[in-house]
Structure formats: C-alpha cells, structure tokens
Amino acid sequence: MPRKKPELLSPASDATCLKAALDAGCDAVYVGLKDFSMRSAAANFSLPALRRASALCRSRGVRLYLAVNTQVYQQELRRLDARLAAVAGLVDAVICWDPAVIEACRRHGIAIHISTQASVANAAAARFYRGLGATRIVPARECTLPELRRLRRQAGIEIEVFAHGAMCVSVSGRCYLSQDSYGKSGNRGECRQNCRRPFRAICSDGEGDYEVEDHYLFSAKDLCTLPFLDQLLDAGIDALKIEGRNRPADYVACITSAYRRAIDAWARGALDQELKAALIEQCRTVFNRDFSSGFFLGRPISDFTDTDGSKSTEQKERVGKVINYYRKAGAAHIWVQNYTIREGDQILIMGPTTGVVKQVAGNIRCENDPARNPPQTITIALDTAVRANDEVYRLVARTTPARQ
User: Fold this and answer.
1) What is the largest CA-CA distance in the chain?
2) CA–CA dist 22, 30 (Å, integer)
3) Could you tell me which residues come within 8 angstroms of residue 117 by beta carbon, excluding any fewer than 6 positions away?
4) Most buried among 10, 253, 321, 336, using CB within 10 Å?
5) Which of 3-7, 49-53, 114-118, 202-206 has the least mean pLDDT?
C-alpha cells in the first residue's frame, strides 16, 4: 500500500517563482506581502498579485500560505488588521508567531501555522499554540529527528519542518547582529547577513591585525535532508518546507522537482541510494553553500562554509530577452544582448507566466550577421511556449564561487 505523502511546500518571491514551483510539483506555496515579511529583500506580492496567485493556485489544486512572521509594533496594529482582513479568503493559512498576528487571524477566520520563529521545541509549547487555534507548528530548527518524532506523537497537531535551504547561525532566526551593526533587524525581515562575510581579528592595542584562518566562522552550510529523507518521512512529518524566498525561479524549480521525485519514490518504497545521490547532484547545480544535515542527526553542529559565495556546479549567464514566440513553428525569436547561444548549449528561459523552461538549444538560426559576437537576434526551436520579455540565460559549468 502506498505511504501517506507529506505536503511539499515551496517558496515564491514573485509570479515567476510561483509558476516554477507549481510546474515542479509542489503541494503548497508560501509567499510574503510587501510588509510584515521576514524576507523584505524579496520581490514579494502586492495585494492584486496575491489575488492572482490565489486564483492560479486554486486552479491547480495547490494550497497558498502567507508568511506574516515579523514582530509587530504597537503603531502597526491597524495596518496589520487591514492586511489580514484583505487576505482572508485568498490564502489557506498565515504563517506567524507574534500574538498580535495570531489574534488578528482568529478575528478574521484565517487558519494559523506557527512559524519556526516561535522556537517551539516541546509538546507543551505545541499544545499551547494549538489552544490558541493553530493547526500546524513549524518547530525550532535546532530540534533533532528523535525529538521531532516524540513531538509529532505527543503534540496532537500537524508538524512541518524545513527540508532544504539556508540556515541561520542563530538557528531559529533570533539574531541581533544585523540590528547592532546596521540598525536593520533580522526579526523585521531586514537582515544584512553579517554572518556570511569573512572576519578579521584585531588586537586591542591596534598593533595586530589577523585574518581568522577559518574566517567564515558564522556562515552555516545549507540544509539538505535528501541523504536521510526516508528517516524524516518515516517519522510522520506532515509537511516538508523548502527555504528560499530570496532565491530565483530556477532554484525553486530545481529544488522542488528534486524533493517531489524523492517523496514520490519514498511513497512507492523506491527511494534508494542511487536516486538520492542523483537528486543531491541536481541540487548542487543551483545556489548552495555546500550541504549539511542541520540538527536532525544531533547537536551541536560545526558545519560552516568556507566561502561567502555559491558552490553551485552551474551558473547562468544572461543572454537577452524573448521578442516573440511562434506557436505553429514552435520557435522563439530572441534578442541576444550578451552571449552567443550555440547548438547543444543548455538554455534557461524564465518569466511570470512561463515559469522556468530549461532545454538543450537546437535548430538555431541567426537573423543578423552571424559573424557578430553576439548576433543581434536569433530564432531557436523550443519544446515549450514562452512569452515576450521572458529572460533568456545559458547554463555553463561554474569555475569560481559566486557571491550572494
């Protein structure tokens, strides 16, 4: 008998990421508005854009969650209430932890998922939030797998865990380093990520200045649960979340599709080491700081990266934009602005309606002087429809780490 699959929850910072997540097979998407979001640097959604996102998700049978997970100040309560009144009926739940948001969600009849920011690490805390009306808990990220098993059995509420993506040195995110350095609080979604940078040690007498040997000493590697995903799923976790509302659409598509394949294989009893290895390599093609098991397999951890950039095995180089797509011919007319596309190149096309299209380039025709480098326009055969103004990239092997 097939096993019960957990919900696969993907991030989306804009319409392109949303379409990429849906096409890659997610069961739910989480997004943020322009305010009250822990990812203020992301594009995020306006209220009209959220309405369109809600309609698209419902047409695909996918749930839509709204992250309202910053701390809220007294003078913001009226604006908060107005925001939640406006989204009631558009989203399936709000992810939050501030009691002001919980209270407003209850007032407007919106389901409540408790954010990892609440640092729930035991069944008593989970039952407390259940008593406030919460239907799901995202536990503290420092919980181990055995602790999550016990929490799942005793809490009487759905449990969602992060399965992949960036980890904060302050774990559940209660860090004040950015606030102290720049006046930009991580708890308000404005973290400047001091921790991702190299550090130097300076003697108090001013006569010594040393580069710390392991100088990315606060920058954690990214979480990847694929090596032990079957253990996590066997524990009865209700939902797996991919971190990444600051990541581009190709990242969302790549990671979502990898975990979709893994979950489906597990449900069939076919998640073997060969498939895990292939999916891990797939995840390495997009942004990563190398991979860690996080706290799932024990505490403490010392999995810190050795670079402030990406260790992805591929990088994308912007080529230009789509001018038009000819449906009968199955071809795209592309304005080439930077790099030449050649037969056999891996290309990536992304846009808000298109999502992410990735394929090998073939049947290329130069519209201008082919001796120009790059030619001004080309026509290229495509298996999937794209739209005018979609961004076009080519994928190449990475030779040096990319900064964030």
Assistant:
1) 74
2) 12
3) 38, 69, 97, 172, 173, 174, 187
4) 10
5) 202-206
